[in-house]
Amino acid sequence: MKKILFLLLTFLISLESKLYARAEQIELNLLDENMIKLWINIYKAEKTPAPTIIVMHGCGGASSDHHTWAQIIQSWGFNSVVLDSFSGVISGDVCRKPSLSHPGSRGVQAYSLASWVENQEWSQKKIGAIGFSHGGSSMLAMSTKELRNNFPGNKIISTVAFYPFCEPFFQMAQTRQIPLQIHIGELDNWTPANPCKDTANLWKLGENLFIYKDSHHHFDRVNANWTNGTWISKSNPEARELSIKRTKEFFEKTLK
Predict the structure, then answer these.
(1) Which end of the chain is more exposed for a tag (fewer CB within 10 A), N or C?
(2) Residue range of the domain that includes 245
(3) What pLDDT score does 233 carry?
(4) pTM of the model
(5) Total domains in the fold of the chain
């Protein structure tokens, strides 16, 4: 009986370790040589070493939705690392005061994290990144030659942006250097879809811009359904499933 209970406990611990990740605080070296301590959650692939995908949250901070994405990515055979850019670093509401954190600065965090990931025993040294809203805007910055020139090793080799704020002036002044995929809702009134069409043309994204009909901000979330003034956050199960499929195909093509 004791043996059966021991085996059951071992199985449950093993199952839990695959589904959940322990928080860990690491120290990263930024471009100005200042050190910063950030929290991460690591979801290791079943078979390692494996490619790794960094998950970057929006202006509201890391939530269960980002951990859900991390577990989905893990199920594809990748390691996934949720990066908390704000905890212990920023005091204030980034959604209401965007100047507290610039997407480019968060891009620097991600590249510094990628250098750390590269040296882990579970890393295959192929690293991608996915970001949502404010984190999606970071993906645009991270895809550029201008930011990547600060990191000679160029650790991150592909990015996926969900409903980023596409700034045409930024894209006109910057040059995309790595594969980038954008997903955005046709009805998004936080980060409108039309400017992303201009980005897709300027950066020659071809078929890697996906605009989802009848979809708002956070369309990929499981239970989003709220408004804040005129801003709408609402799930769309069909768009969610299709965007997950396309993201998987993209990373399998660019990282494996």
Answers:
(1) N
(2) 24-255
(3) 96
(4) 0.91
(5) 1
